[in-house]
Amino acid sequence: MGNPIKKLAGQTAVYGLSSILGRFLNYLLTPYWINEGGGGFSTDQFGVITEMYAYVAFLVVFLTYGMETTYFRYASKDEYESKNVYSTILPTVIFSSVGFIIISLLFSQGIANWLMYPDHSEYVIWFAIIVGFDAVSSIPLAYLRKENRAKKFAVVNLGNVVVNIGLNLFFIGYCKTNFEAGNSNWLIDLVYNPEIGVGYVFIANLVASAFKLIVVLPEMYLVRAGVFVKSYLKPFFKYSIPLLFVGLAGIVNETLDRVLLKRILVNDVGLDEAMSQLGIYGANYKLSIVITLFIQAYRYAAEPFFFAKEKEQNSKEMYSKIMNYFVVVVSFLFLLVTGYIDLFKYFIPNDDFWEGLKVVPILLLANVLLGVYYNLSIWYKLSHKTGYGALVSIMGAIVTIGLNLALIPSMGYYGAAWATFFCYLSMVVVSYVLGQKYYPIPYNLKRISSYSLLAVMFFLISEFLLSHLEFPIKLMLNTVILLVYLGIAYIFERPKKQLNRKSL
C-alpha cells in the first residue's frame, strides 16, 4: 500500500487539474469583462456581476443542503447499501431544486424589485435555473469523486468552463465589441441586444450549467440500479441539516460582504457609486484566486480521503502531518501573490479598479485562515457532531454580520475585508478548541504558527522595506524571500522524516 499522503497529494493534483484549471480559466473572464481596451464593463456594471454571483454561491449551498458530504458519509458505511444511498439522495435533491425553480419563476418580479433590478426580472429566472441545475449535478459529481473517477470529473468541469468561456467570447468579445464599434452584421443583429448588457454573462453561465447537467446524465441514470429507501431519509437529514447551516453560514462569511456593501453604502453615496465600490472590491477579491483554487482542489480530494482513512490506526497523526504541509503551501501562496502584486495586478487590466489593491493581502490572509478551518472541520464530520460545526459557522456568520455593519460605513470595502479576516480567525480558534475536546488531533501548533508568522513577517519586510525599490530589484528580492521561506520549511520538515526512518 503506498504512502497515503502521497495518494492525497496525487488526488489533489488530479482534481486540481480540473478545478484549478477550470476556475482559473473562468477567472480569466474577470480581466476580460473589465478590459478598458474594448468590450469590457465599467466598475458599476461589474458590481452587478459581483452581487449576483454572491447570491448564487448562497443558493447552491441552500439547494444541496449538505447532501454531498452526507453521501460520502453513508455510502462508506457497511450498514448502508451504497447504490441505495445514491438512489435516495439524488431524487431528493432533484425534487427540491425543481420546486425552487418554480417558486422563483412565480415571484421573479418581486425578487428583482428587492434586488434593485426592477427592469431585469430575467436575471432572477436565469439564476434560478442555473443554481437548480448546479445543485442537481453536484450529486453525480460527488459520485464520481467517491468512485475516484477523477478523469470524468475533470471532463465535466472543464467542459462546463469551455462552454462558458466560448459563449462569453462570442457574446461580449465578438457581438458586443463589434456592435459598439459599428460593425454589426446579420449574426450580431440576430442574437445581440445591447439592453441585455451584463445579462450575456449570465446567459453563458446558464447554457454551461445545462451542458454540465447533460454530461452527467449517465451517472444520474445509475439511480435505477438502486432503490429509494424512505427510512434512509431520517438519518440523512439528521446528518445533513446541521451541515446546511454550516454551509449557509460559511457562504454568509464568504459572500455577505459583497451583498452588504451595496445595501450599506447606497444611502450615503448613491446606487451608482455603491455599485462601483462593489465592482472594485469584487475584482480585487479575485486576486486571492491562487489560494482559493488550491483550497478547492484540496477539498475535493481531502473530504473522501479523510473518511476513507478514518479507521486506520495512525489516522490522527496523518491528519496532523497533512495540516503542516497545507499551511506551508498556503503561506507560500500568500507570499507569492503579495510579493508579485505588481505583476498580479495586471489580472485587472483597468486601472479604475487598482485603488482596491491594498485589500488583497487582507483577503489572502483571510483565505489562508479559511483553508486552515476546512482542515480543522474534519473533526465534527468524523465524530458525527455536525451540530457543533453548525454552531461554529453560525458564530462566524454573526461576527461577519456585526463587523460588516460596524466597519463598512466608515471604511468601505476595507472594512469588509477586515470583517472577513476576523470572521475566519474566530472560526479557526473556536473549531480548534472544540475539536481538541471531542475529537483530539495532535496538531503541531508551534510548527503551524511558526510557518504562518514567518510568512507574515516576510510580507511586512517586503511591504515596508522593499516597496520603494525599482521594480526589477524588488521582484528579485521577493523571489529570494520565497526561496528562503521554502528552505526554512524544508529544513523543519526534513529532519523529522529522517528521524522516522532511523527509528524504523
Structure commentary:
The chain is mainly alpha-helical and 504 residues long. The protein has one domain (4-503). The chain is 81% helix and 0% strand. It contains 22 helices and no strands. It has helices spanning 4-27, 29-33, 43-64, 67-75, 82-106, 108-114, 121-146, 150-180, 186-191, 199-215, 217-220, 230-269, 271-285, 289-308, 315-339, 341-344, 360-376, 378-382, 386-411, 413-438, 445-465, 471-503. Helix 15 packs antiparallel against helix 17 and helix 21 packs antiparallel against helix 22 (471-503). It is globular. The two termini are 17 Å apart.
Could you give a short description of this structure?
By secondary structure, this protein is mostly helical.
What is the 3D shape?
A: globular
Helix/strand structural class = mainly alpha
Tally of helical segments: 22
Report the C-alpha radius of gyration, rounded: 23 Å
The fraction of residues in strands falls at under 5%
Largest sheet properties: none
Helical fraction equals: over 70%
Low-confidence stretches: 496-504
Q: How many domains, as an integer?
A: 1
Which series of helices and strands comes N to C?
HHHHHHHHHHHHHHHHHHHHHH
Total strand count, please?
A: 0
Mean of pLDDT: 83
Distance between the termini: 17 Å
